[in-house]
Structures are given as structure tokens and as C-alpha cells.
Amino acid sequence: MPELLAIDVIYALPDKQQLVKLQLPAGSTVREAIDASGLLQKHPEIDLARNKIGIFGKLSKADAVLRDQDRVEIYRPLIADPKEVRKQRAAEGKVMKKGAGEGE
Fold this sequence. Notes:
The chain is α+β, with helices and mostly antiparallel strands. Helices cover 32% and strands 26% of the residues. The chain is built from three helices and five strands. It has a five-stranded mixed beta sheet, with helices on one face.
């Protein structure tokens, strides 16, 4: 295991993403990487009690120990619930199908 880990910390905004490359000692945690990245200071809207975090797209806890080449991600809260959006689209599709058959 290398003494220093190469870690990326990413926070995606609607119009751009912030990527910070770090060198951290082996045994560092997700929370330590986020703190070292400086993203909490640059983006005061990040609230780690509310925002979810992960490693390579999989949810993670703040105390998870990092491995070399890990990508720590800070997720923004969802604007819309994906399940609700799918339900609405499905309901609209059913209405359209019913309406399409009436004209024939």
C-alpha cells in the first residue's frame, strides 16, 4: 500500500464541476478528503448532514477509509423525486394512448 494516496474530490454544480486532486496519507477517510479539498469553504451550501457522499457513484459513509485512486463525490440534493417523475410520465403516456385510439 502506498504511503500517499492519490484522491480526487468532486462536487458537480448545474453548470460546471469542481475537481480537486489530493495526496493524502494512507488510512485517510472520506471526510478527511472532503475537508482537505477546501470545497466546504468554496461552497457554503454544502451541508454534509444533508448532502450525500460517495466513492465512484456508490454511497459511502464519512468515516470510510480511502484507497489509492478513489474519487470522492459530494452529491447535491435532488430537485425532483425520480419515482414521482416516472409516475407522471407513465400517467401521461396512458392518457395519450387512450386518446390515440379514440380517433380511429
